[in-house]
TrEMBL record:
Cofactor: FAD
FAD/NAD(P)-binding domain boundaries: 16-311
Ranges that cross the membrane: none
Name recorded for this polypeptide: NADH dehydrogenase FAD-containing subunit
Record organism: Methylocaldum szegediense
Length: 386
């Protein structure tokens, strides 16, 4: 091939790789391996039949849901790997056994490997739901307009309330998509955001939150800070004050829960992405994505950017470790920006420096360009710089 990877001197030995998790990091690693080793035998284990472009999912109010689900069957043909649909559970002791045995049980078969990459990502925090409460799982399974219109049609009100719970990036993005969707379709409803914090987007520079709150006010979205969601009863949402513990009820005919990510197993890795279990470096098992914590100077943020970069770094180091000279590359990536959609033509976030806040239509254009880079990767065109 005409691709060049620094510090990689390939051997003639066959390379067998198993990747657990077909999200951003898993696929980025798979595609990177395939660039340099077209002869590698790759097995991808994922419990779903499709790769989900989760960073785009809020756009399902204006685009078909199928746009964000890429069948693994199509990717299998494009990148020459085998997808096995299975859900694996494991812990550090299991990984140590796999490292020693070089085999992994998957469904009804046992798969051998030279290297294993664990890229299981993170799920979403879940609460018990009633009929009038929905979360991201619902938006993954069914088209967003269908869900919204069905619930509003069943509401016993001519001007029903929709409450979004969660002032993080996901809650904000869905809130603005619903606001623009309702306005475009002329759907009568009132919107509210409930957050346990005193502001929105509190993990970022305060300017981001202030801009988002100003745009919420422009769209007539009610904001209730400093309250926890405690349940949905009939046509009311039950809230608890974070300060006093007092309970209150507000009209709400539909409640959307966006309460953050949940990592079941966080794997610790060294500078190079190799798993460290009970103080032992498992040199044939790497990890990447939201499930991983690298002991290095690089970003451990649970973002798509970090997931892609960790996946590519782990793949490059698997290649190097399988080669003639085992000189590995440390993980040093820092995110160069983060942008949050506030509807079809508006975004807010930061670029280059977290203090360099950008907003409006130009920020929305940059966000689309950044996400288009990953779409190119899925098409087999790698534009990422090492």
């Amino acid at each position: 091939m005409d691709m060049f990877l620094p510090l990689y001197f390939p051997s003639k030995a066959a390379l067998k790789l198993v990747i657990i998790g077909g999200g951003y990091s898993g696929l980025s690693a798979l595609i990177t391996i395939r660039e340099y080793r077209p002869d590698a035998e790759i097995v991808l284990v994922d419990r779903q039949p499709y790769h989900l472009k989760i960073t785009h999912l809020h756009e399902s109010f204006r685009r078909p849901l199928t746009d964000f689900k890429v069948p693994f069957s199509a990717l299998e043909k494009r990148f020459n790997f085998r997808h096995v649909m299975a859900d694996l559970t494991f812990d550090d002791s299991t990984l140590k056994k796999w490292q020693y045995d070089r085999v992994i049980p998957v469904g009804q078969e046992v798969v051998g490997f030279d290297y294993l990459l664990v890229a299981t990502g993170a799920g979403f925090k879940k609460l018990e739901k009633s009929r009038q409460v929905i979360d991201l799982d619902d938006f993954i399974e069914r088209p967003a307009p269908e869900i919204l219109e069905e619930h509003l049609a069943a509401a016993n009100s001519s001007m029903p309330w929709i409450t979004a719970v969660g002032g993080g990036a996901t809650g904000i993005q869905y809130l603005f998509e619903i606001a623009h969707f309702a306005r475009e379709r002329r759907i009568p409803c009132r919107l509210r955001l409930v957050s346990s914090e005193q502001g929105v987007l509190t993990q970022f520079d305060p300017k981001l939150g202030r801009y988002a709150e100003a745009r919420m006010a422009d769209l007539g979205i009610e904001y209730v800070p400093g309250h926890f969601f405690r349940g949905q009863e009939a046509d009311h949402v039950v809230l608890e004050s974070a300060e006093t513990g007092d309970l209150s009820e507000l009209d709400s005919h539909l409640t959307l829960l966006f309460i953050g990510k949940s990592v079941g197993l966080r794997l610790h890795a060294n500078f190079f992405g190799q798993v460290v279990a009970d103080g032992e470096v498992l040199d044939r098992i790497f990890t990447a994505g939201d499930c991983s914590y690298y002991r290095s100077l690089g970003s451990n943020a649970m973002t798509a950017q970090s997931a892609v970069r960790k996946g590519k770094l782990a793949a490059r180091n698997i290649l190097r470790h399988s080669g003639l000279v085992k000189l590995l590359e440390p993980y040093l990536h820092r995110d160069l920006g983060y942008l949050i959609s506030l509807g079809p033509q508006d975004s807010v976030g930061w670029l280059v420096s977290e203090r360099n806040v950008v907003a409006g239509f130009p920020a929305a254009v940059v966000k689309e360009l950044v996400e288009a880079q990953y779409d190119l990767l899925l098409a087999g065109i790698d534009t990422y710089i090492l």
